Amino acid sequence: MSSELAPRNTSAAPAVADDDNRYKAVQAKLDKFGKAMDDATLELESLRRSMQANADHTDGVATDIENADLSPKFVELTANVVLALIGAAREVRTLSDTAQETADLTHQTRRTHAKLYGALDEIRSGRREKTPRPGFFNR
């Protein structure tokens, strides 16, 4: 039964939240966030599998305790641990599904942003003269 939690050497935020709203900066932030959510999905699924394996192993331990004619108190306590692990694994699965949905929406947002503003950025980046920001003429 291994459920080691190891600290990671990454910052808490996968993408810096600042006021840099230039096209390329937004694209980079969306890309970085989407990849972080993909990684989180994989890690959560690994955690879920580990918790389920621990629950299965603990269930076997509960059976062994019962077969050894130990106090029913220990069988009951071990069975409670099994139920807690199964419940936690179920909730981690829900969290993993949510992380995957968020990753998918982030990738979709990045593609939509590129579709809407990519050509404008290409035009603005190719000019030597400064051009108005998007929305300037909408006032």
How would you portray this structure in words?
This protein is mostly helical and 139 residues long. The protein has two helices and no strands. Helix 1 runs antiparallel to helix 2. The chain starts with 22 loop residues before the first helix and ends in a 13-residue tail after the last helix. The mean pLDDT is 88.
List keywords for this structure.
rod-shaped, mainly alpha, 2 helices, 139 residues, single chain
What's the pLDDT, averaged over the residues? 88
Topology as H/E string?
A: HH
Form type? rod-shaped
Query: Helix amount, in percent?
Result: over 70%
Low-confidence stretches: none
**What does the radius of gyration come to?**
25 Å
Oligomer: single chain
Quickly count the helices: 2
Largest sheet: none
Broad structural category: mainly alpha
Cα distance spanning the termini: 63 Å
Total strands: 0
Strand share of the residues?
under 5%
Secondary-structure topology with pairs:
Blueprint: H1 23-67, H2 72-126
Summarize the structure.
By secondary structure, the chain is mostly helical. It is built from two helices and no strands. The longest helix is centred in the last third of the chain and has 55 residues, at 72-126.
